[in-house]
Automatic annotation (TrEMBL):
Family membership noted in the UniProt record: Belongs to the cytochrome P450 family.
Entry-linked SUPFAM superfamilies: Cytochrome P450
Listed cofactors: heme
Top-level taxon of origin: Eukaryota
Signal peptide: none
Name used for this protein in its record: Cytochrome P450
Compartment(s): Membrane
UniProt cross-references to Pfam families, sorted A to Z: p450
Annotated GO CC locations: membrane
One of the GO BP terms on file: lipid metabolic process
Residues annotated for heme binding in this entry: C456
A GO molecular-function annotation: heme binding
Primary location: membrane
């Protein structure tokens, strides 16, 4: 036997187990899992070698992007959750599909969703995020698991108590006031204004002040870099990553690493300045200061510099993008439902007059709260909640094998007629007249902020900010959609209007 043959045989011998493992993972396992689910009555699109359902997901998504909707239609799942919608129609409420060779079960019934999200033992953990998402959010509260999550959550929670948030109302109102002063020029000439970017900058300004007591200008680089990273992550969201590809110095990775370094440097300088100021003036009363103080009290469990950087990244992302879209879609809904715009204005003028609203005034704005809840039901900024079964589980009457991902498309749940009534697809704020628990046939049917222990820590912050800004807009302007508006909600990690939201403002007090 020649040396070459010997080497080749040795190589083959070494590679055989890998080859076998790959074969099991890419062929046998999907086949066995699909069969086990089929026996339980759970069907779905067939598994395709290596790609799973990704090819079909891409094709359905591309087709959906060509659809535009009637300006008043809230039937937006055709555009932003097209494959969930198609497969629900084809295979029923619970179905199986494949992200590569990774099995995913989709559920939208609120009782099953609650069983997953509020599982007492934490058996449905967060999924492993794509590498780019870690760069975006760090190992902050949104992504950490187990005891690490407990440590982070107890350091961050004190910053979000209602007392602390009430103090922040003043900051929120000041940021809104300077934005709305700019709007006055547009209103005076009845010129069109593109509100998406306006709200993005306003929300960035609010979170920068609330979290760091610093201005938007100082945090600008951080927001820009985070938004840039977000775009790149979305681009590769629908492709399968070759394991290890995140470490290859490709042009895209080099650029992403550069953005991450810049982000980190900026955040370190903000945090270090705060640590240095402790002796002089204490840590301060903003989110960062409160977090640093709470962390210091956790004996042996203090957050490290890296932990704090990651929490700051999380604040920026969670606080900016979601809240600005919340406001954007609320303005869209009030522009297309003028009678509600009028009702809210009356309420705001009755409770606040032309004063800058404070927390007490805001607490009396019942109709405003109802409209905001209806807006977040129909246009939830996050559209899918994701978990993974950490062990074999029984969910309802389905056996879920360990390692299965569970997708919970919020917008599908929010449009279920059997839960929300025959008008589930309509804008009807009255459904929230008696609060969220009684708004639907299931007490935790509203999922926009999630439910259970991992529910959004910033939901009161977001509601307070949205109320403040909306009340101040209603005091000053009436608004309607520009004729240029095209109703095309688009999924970009969050739900964005693809062509923006151009609005015509009219001043109420000349
Ligand atoms: C309209 C605005 C917002 C929406 C719709 C929203 C939605 C959500 C949702 C759905 C989750 C749970 C994700 C999951 O279970 O996988 C979440 C978690 C979280 N949100 Fe928000 N959020 C908003 C605003 C904010 C704000 C303003 C902040 C902070 C300033 C914030 C900070 C967080 C954090 C830290 C978590 C992780 C909580 C944990 O895992 O313990 N969010 N948010």
């Amino acid at each position: 036997m020649s040396n070459l043959t010997l080497i080749l045989s040795a190589l083959l011998f070494l590679l055989l187990p890998c080859f076998w493992k790959a074969l099991m993972h890419l062929i046998w396992r999907p086949y066995a899992i699909a069969k086990a689910f089929r026996k339980q009555g759970v069907r779905g699109p067939p598994y395709k070698f290596w790609f799973g359902s990704l090819g079909e997901m891409k094709r359905i998504t591309n087709e959906a992007m060509n659809l535009t909707l009637d300006k008043k239609s809230h039937d937006i799942t055709t555009r932003i959750l097209p494959y969930y919608r198609k497969w629900t129609e084809e295979y029923g409420d619970v179905f199986l599909f494949w992200h590569g060779a990774q099995p995913k079960i989709c559920i939208s019934d609120p009782e099953l969703v609650k069983q997953v999200l509020a599982n007492k033992f934490g058996f449905y953990g967060k999924i492993d995020p794509p590498s780019g998402v870690t760069a975006l959010l760090g190992k902050g509260l949104v992504l950490v698991r187990g005891s690490e999550w407990v440590r982070h959550r107890s350091a961050v929670s004190p910053a979000f108590t209602m007392d602390k948030l009430k103090i922040l109302t003043k900051t929120m109102a000041e940021c809104a006031k300077s934005t709305l002063q700019l709007w006055q020029d547009y209103a005076d000439d009845e010129r069109e204004i593109e509100v998406v970017q306006q709200f993005r900058e306003l929300a960035a300004d609010v979170i920068a002040h609330a979290a760091f007591g610093s201005s938007f200008i100082e945090g600008k680089q951080v927001f820009q870099d985070q938004n840039e990273l977000l775009k790149m992550i979305v681009q590769r969201n629908l492709s399968i990553e070759i394991p290890g590809s995140e470490y290859i110095p490709s042009r895209r990775n080099l650029y992403m690493w550069k953005l991450d370094r810049r982000l980190r440097k900026k955040l370190i300088s903000i945090i270090q300045a705060r640590l240095d100021s402790k002796e002089r003036s204490g840590y301060g009363n903003d989110l960062l200061g409160i977090m640093l103080e709470a962390s210091e009290k956790q004996e042996g469990q203090k957050l490290s510099m890296d932990d704090i950087i990651d929490e700051c990244k999380t604040f920026f992302f969670a606080g900016q993008e979601t809240t600005s879209l919340f406001l954007t879609w609320t303005i869209y809904l009030l522009s297309t439902n003028n009678e509600w715009q009028e009702k809210l204005r009356e309420e705001v003028l009755r409770e606040c007059g032309m004063k800058i609203p404070n927390a007490d005034m805001l607490s009396k704005l019942k109709l405003v709260t109802m409209v905001l809840l209806e807006a977040i039901r129909l246009y939830s900024p996050f559209i899918v909640l994701r978990r993974k079964a950490d062990k074999d589980m029984n969910l309802g009457n389905i056996n879920i094998p360990k390692g299965t991902n569970i997708d919970m498309p919020i917008m599908m749940s929010h449009r279920k007629k059997e839960i929300w009534g025959a008008d589930a697809g309509e804008f009807n704020p009255l459904r929230f007249e008696n609060g969220t628990v009684k708004a639907a046939a299931h007490p935790t049917a509203l999922l926009s902020f999630s439910v259970g222990p991992r529910a959004c820590i910033g939901q009161n912050f977001a509601m307070l900010e949205a109320k403040t800004v909306l009340a101040m807009i209603l005091q000053r302007f009436s608004f309607s959609l520009s004729s240029k508006y095209i109703h095309a909600p688009m999924f970009l990690i969050t739900v964005n209007p693809q062509y923006g939201l151009p609005v015509i403002l009219k001043p109420l007090h000349v």
